[in-house]
Design goal:
- By secondary structure, the protein is an alpha/beta fold.
- An 8-stranded parallel beta sheet has the order 4-1-5-10-9-6-7-8, with helices on both faces. The protein has a two-stranded antiparallel sheet with strand order 2-3.
- α1 runs parallel beside α2 and α7 packs parallel to α8.
- The longest helix is centred in the N-terminal third of the chain and has 17 residues.
């Protein structure tokens, strides 16, 4: 089942071109603090995931992983998170140079730093060893140190299929900026030097072929930026093995 959560940092994101049929997750969000809006949004996402069989979600930002993991946990599934991202998303309030919440979700998921969204979703902390960061190449200095001291594994796209546990359910999340921006433009924080779309696609197809994937989500391109149509087409090709 395909769902769309068309919000970026709690604010409406218009113009996403996604495969059909799809169901929009669009709760009534009260005006107020960004964190509170995101907490309400992803608590709703958790409920949607809990009620769906092998869900796929297009979301505007990576904090969606907190609601997705919480939803799987409600169904009695303790997933291994395979997290494709050009960035580490492993900052806390103590390490971040920007105070950007979108740079924190993998840290949040493993119990570090800000926990408002995770607590609102009812998410249980993932052990470090149940998280894989795929091609995280653009890290802040203190974030890099925190990640190096963690038990989160960092792997290139070419290795992940051979390294995931052969007997655990997998939740796969892709931030589309993992792909080199020459091939997938219209992302908010482009990071040159990434893998090709073909390499990422081969990796994702390999994970799908394991039969272990219990959920898939993707953090989308920005439809307001140049190259959005190209980004949409590439994203939809990458996601095709999981869109049912």
């Amino acid at each position: 089942m395909l769902f769309v959560s068309p919000f970026y940092m709690g604010h409406r994101l218009d113009g996403l071109e996604v495969p059909e049929p799809s169901t929009v997750i669009d709760p009534a969000l009260e005006p107020g603090a960004e964190m509170d809006r995101m907490a309400a949004l992803y608590a709703e996402l958790a409920s949607v995931v809990a009620g769906a069989h092998t869900p796929t979600v297009y979301a505007g930002d990576c904090c969606a992983i907190l609601g997705f993991v919480a939803g799987l946990q409600r169904k009695g599934i303790d997933p291994v998170l395979v997290f494709y991202d050009a960035h580490g998303d492993f900052n806390t309030w103590e390490t971040t140079p920007s105070n950007f919440i979108g740079g924190m979700p993998l840290a949040m998921a493993t119990g570090r730093g800000e926990q408002t969204i995770a607590e609102a979703c009812g998410m249980r902390t993932l052990p470090d060893t149940d998280a894989y960061l795929v091609d995280g190449r653009d890290l802040d200095p203190e974030e890099s140190e925190l990640l190096a001291d963690s038990g989160v594994r960092r792997l290139p796209v070419e290795s992940i299929v051979d390294e995931v546990p052969p007997d655990r359910p997998l939740y796969v999340h892709v931030d589309v900026d993992v792909v080199d921006p020459d091939e997938l433009p219209a992302v908010n924080y482009p990071a040159p030097g990434g893998p090709s779309a073909a390499a990422v696609g081969e990796s994702l197809s390999g994970l799908a072929a394991t039969g272990l994937v219990v959920g898939y989500s993707v953090s989308t391109w920005n439809p307001a930026l140049p190259g959005a149509a190209t980004a949409a087409a590439v994203t939809n090709r990458l996601s095709a093995p999981f869109v049912r």
